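Protein modeling request. Please complete all fields; requests missing the sequence field cannot be processed.
Requester role: graduate student
Desired output: 3D structure, token encoding
Chains: 1
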Amino acid sequence: MADYNQALPPEEAIRRGGMLDGEGVYWIEEPVRHDDYAGCAAVARAISTPVQIGENFSQVYDMERALAAGACDLVMPDLERIGGVTGWRGAAALAAARTVPMSSHLFPEVSAHLLAVTPTAHWLEYVDWAGAIVEEPLAIVAGHAVIPARPGNGLAWNKEAVARYRMH
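Delivered output (168 residues):
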């Protein structure tokens, strides 16, 4: 997986993406500016390596526009930006209707739950940023997230750690 983090103009993304085709790169993430759906569609058409976008979708409407433009092969919405649980479910329905694989962007403690009910679930992006402040961090066993059976989103804050890291 290669993440350009919106750094390239479409022409350069096509040039670099073409050089990566056939090299075993799983996907090229956010090759161009997040709201340049026409440019990203040009990249997706020009290269054979799948293009992944979505961490900057603002609500489901952006994802709908991106998919309509053919801007990507894969989507990766961010739980906070897509509109929380309700937005995620709408995004999952859009992805399912178009059979587009859907991964998560950050918030793995909650995203793991949501991917479990996403018809085209793909990858859970895992970064252990919350582990220091939750009672029980998300367990990863043999490369897979173990979704806790606790109620709600399964999070319980470690009150001592929250107090220790609190910024005044």
